[in-house]
User: Fold these one by one.
Assistant:
Number 1:
Amino acid sequence: MVPRALIDWGVATLALPGEAESGDLSTVQTTERGVLIGAVDGLGHGAEAAAAARRAVAVLERCPGDPMLQLVQACHQALVVVARYLGDGGGGA
């Protein structure tokens, strides 16, 4: 028997015309205490926004049971790295 899901959910995204990908992503992760629902908006649009959103989602999926403040701080740190990389023209330091 398949266990019943804690929640039913769905998501729809759409990239802007002319863009190959969207900077809006989401993740739903079960934890010991319930469910973490993350809605991520990589500011801007296109590939750069999508890269930032993927980075934040990766953080949330890596440790969904961590305290919320810790998750926000970890996402911030991950996005600072992306911003520095993009600010350097994508070439790294």
Note: The mean pLDDT is 86.
Number 2:
Amino acid sequence: MNDTGPHDAKPIDNVAVPHDSASPLVDAAFDVLSRDPHLRYNARFLQIEDRQGTLVLHGRLPSFYLVQVLQTVLGRLDGVKSIENRINVLWPPAKSDNGDSAARRSK
């Protein structure tokens, strides 16, 4: 991941989300993510590049489901020709303070 490009901070629920503010498509992407109930918290872990209409997604999400939601939401934006997914899914789930996994606690 190359962090040498221009970055700006955009708040999403009191969380700064760095992104390239020179791209209206990236601005639109973070705007739609800030309103999505599944993705607004996780948007702070994402970087999005605009390569002439191809959105290149970097970062991490806690599930494959959220990766699919992300691609679906961003794919609906005007001007998106394709999506290049470089998202890492965190697995196994993070441990809680008492050592139980989130999956075990939900049973």
Note: The longest strand covers residues 54-61.
Number 3:
Amino acid sequence: MTAKLFETALGIAEPWSVASVAFDETTKVLTISIDFLPGIVAWAQTHQTNGFLEALNGLFQAAKRCARGFIRNKESLNKPGFGLS
């Protein structure tokens, strides 16, 4: 039950998993052990990475950067740097 709670809180999804959770009250240290072996084995079998999702995220970030420079009114176009003054 605790492992599933920490998997949800940390955003850990299959094939990764939380192996154990321990809290030491004297030192106030929380130790979370994550089992990476199933993920490594899955990559060795499929050779799939998250590169496609990272590239897609880069496109969204570029679109957001372009949208920040979008001007809605004509008075703002007369400012220096826009080439219309």
Note: The mean pLDDT is 78.
